[in-house]
Amino acid sequence: MSNVEDLDKLDHQSPVVELVETKGHTSGADWLARYSTSLMGVFGTPQRVLVRGAGCLVWDADGKEYLDLLGGIAVNALGHAHPFVTSVISSQLATLGHVSNFFTSPTQIALAEKLLALTHAPAGSKVFFTNSGTEANEAAFKLARRNGAGPDGTTGKRTKIIALEGAFHGRTMGALALTAKKAYRLPFEPLPGGVVHIPFGDVAALEAAIDETVAAVFLEPIQGEAGVRPLPPGYLKAAREATTKAGALLILDEVQTGIGRTGKWLATEDAGIVPDAVTLAKGLGGGFPIGALLTFGERTSSLLSAGQHGTTFGGNPVATAAALATLHAIESQRVLENVALVGDYLRTGLAAVDGVTEVRGEGLLIGFDLDADVAPAVVTAGLDAGFIVNSPGPHTIRLAPPLILTKDQAGTFLAALPALLQTAKDAQ
Ligand SMILES: *Cc1c(COP(=O)(O)O)cnc(C)c1O
Asked: What atom of ligand 1 comes closest to residue 171's alpha carbon?
């Protein structure tokens, strides 16, 4: 393609598939061979090559159908190819796709207003848009560094940030410093300094760790990557009291738990506290990449001043339109009620399965433990039987399906699970 005239000759109706050279080989095995020679090996070998989705179903390159009980890791809130979200994204893209943050656009402003309204944010609250969860947490990390900062532009005496053992906050350097897992951290040290990890769910340890040298406390209401571990009751209240007393920020990472995942807009909305900031991503765009940092109240919202943070893509018209469409569909189709209903049905059903020793989580973020270290084998058996699930640990399975999962669909998994467990144990 050498000039504008040639570009105009492109067939605008041509499907994406014509841009993908199949070289006459289209099986999953063929694609994976090409994958391994061209994609960086950080994800291991992909489990399947997926080519199409509709609702809670996806299909692989070999034509096999799966019930998607992972939803792109809590991302595909409305399943795959949701007609309303698809049409809003397409029409925004055909109207105005990108403008940079020298400019703004109506969808960006409308989405910020909508998020502040849905989260009951107090007056003076603000939003910063990002492209991912880790970027939302990077922004929150920088916000924390400005807490207690001197007017001379230095960061001041609040040098510490508290996070929890088991925490996952992302893979970029700041978010990685907040993430607890040694295997993720050690290969990349030194990480941004001052982060202290304290025991999970231990109020006494939290109170002992917080003093006037602490800039912020980062908490996930339910630790997803650690196997769907909810904070114990009362912990958030204690954290709010201790941070308020010491002048530290309370920052909630709702990247996985937010936007309806637990049957509420925020997992923490009934906790009886107002945090200083909340990070969102995963489900926010219904599959389209977008994240956000919400800062609550005037003081926190003015910590980052003009020029202190930025992003090229963050808050672009298409991403913010995708999120507006997702929020609208969740509201108008009463999806939160479905999350509560199907979530309870799944948890009750799972608890009754022989070999399941514990069921955790809220809404459609569910973790369950098995009586043997066969979780990876259950994932494999699930794929063979047409179910996509995930194992965050050797004896733990995580489900984070589309929020539109039906009771019937959930029932097919419950019916299949005993056989999957048996297959996994036999394979040992
Ligand atoms: C997934 C996740 C992140 C990181 O989000 P990315 O979009 O993968 O960068 C951060 N925090 C939590 C709690 C998450 O689940």
From this structure: 9
